[in-house]
Amino acid sequence: MADLSNKKIALRREAGVIGLLYASLGGIIGSGWLKGPMEAAQQAGPLSIFSWLVGGIAILLLALVYAELATLFPRSGAVVHFPHLSHGVLLSRIWSWILFLGYVSVAPVEVLATLGYMANIWPWLIYPKNHALTPAGFGFAVLMLAFFTVLNLFGIKWVMRISTTAGWWKLAVPLVTIIGLLIGAHHTGNLHIQPHQLAPNIRGVFTALGTAGVIFSFLGFRQAVELAGETSQPQRYVPIAVIGSVVIGMVIYIGLQLAFVMAISPAELAKYGWAALDHARGFTVGAGPLAALASGIGLAWLAMLLYADAIVSPGGTGFIYATTSSRVIGAMSEDGFIHSSLQRLNRFGVPWAAGIVSFVVGCFFMLPFPSWHKMVNEISDVMVLSYGIGPVVLLSLRRTLPEASRPRPFRVPMADILAPITFIISNLIVYWSGFATLTFLLEVIAAALALFLAWRLIKRESIAGLPWKSTWWVFPYLGGLWILDGIGSKSMTGGLGYLKFPYDVIVVAVFSVMILYVAVNSAVPMEEIQAYIDNL
After folding, report:
1. Residue 425, SS3?
2. Which of 73, 103, 231 is nearest to 157 (CA)?
3. How many structural domains is the chain composed of?
4. Of 86, 182, 485, 506, which cross-links 435 as Cys (Cβ 3.0–4.6 Å)?
5. What is the DSSP string of 196-234?
């Protein structure tokens, strides 16, 4: 074994453009696509098709931001370094904790989702009353996560081969589903909207972005960013992978939504309506509404395929997150946040020690307690907080690290306009996660910050010496979002309902622009940035 200081063993740059593309696409097309179309249709009826278009365009703008940052600083686990580059060590510590919880929790959550579907075949995996894992189910889950970890030890080339193979499957099954449903049933009358339904459906287009998981379905695009240090041409490959995965995902989700809407039986739709569609016959089967719909129109073979995908898709997403979480942990070690031993690489250039930590923490997240499952899902939602830092870092580095001193292989056009828009989008994602979830996440972050400051005191290091001047804006930023969530729409955030749609979107947008202005003007000077880069 060797660590990163040993130049004989280093991260291998063997990830190709197709591997990176399918890594990001695998994060976008997970288990959620099996239920997303119905949940969106319940919110917006036939206009739910536009929910996926709006959501896809919004995330595409965010993907452009991360494409520039990843090519500017192409390192594995680069998202750990971005906050340090622009605002120093304190912001880096806060965001590293967010990233750690976000990445490490996804693989166990996907394993639990896989076992949830497998329980339809092997009911001994899960207790039916409380949906907790049985002892045998827990053992199976640990073995599955261990399998992902072991596969990762054989190098990025094998990871990309497995990810690409799974990616072809995860691309083919939705496409086959779209074609099968459109051929099997195409009730064009379902696309018509009654005049009295127009206003609620238009509102539903936007409420579905958060409540139906439209936005969240696209957030896996960042996998290629985490693996940027393991490709020979990050300046070319990463933008293609990041942007391409969002575009492909958007086309697939729009197609699925169209096929779903047109395949609904007009009789069932007349009986239940869009809002109560989940009560229609067969829509409670374990593999989700698409499988039920396929069975209902006589496509038994498609239903079986969807049952199989309900097991394969979560597993594929869990595998790629097991890969990227070890890179994030390795970058945290490189940044001095955790012990330097976690930078160690095996002879295949894989951060094996970080992978073991990811596995152990993942097993902890899968403990078979019913109340624990809810908390684990909330921890995985911490990922949404991590995206907002991208636009802040982009505009900060445009000022403090100009292109004359650090060329941009990929440059976001009209960044002064697009970056604020993406920051607004990021904050709306956090806002739509809900008041209860955001409260829990901020409690976790506050506890981690308290431990960090206490540790510095124990080591007799100065707290006053931390870069508070460049980080203070984070506290009104997170606190302001929490207050807005608390007074926000009952249906969208679980708040008190004082701030209703669409006025809440306008308020969040104005708040975001104010915070962005303060954050960019609080960035550290170029000398500190260059010193940090030189040290790495």
Report:
1. helix
2. 231
3. 1
4. 485
5. HHHHHHHHHHHHHHHHT-HHHHTGGGGHHHHTGGGSS-H
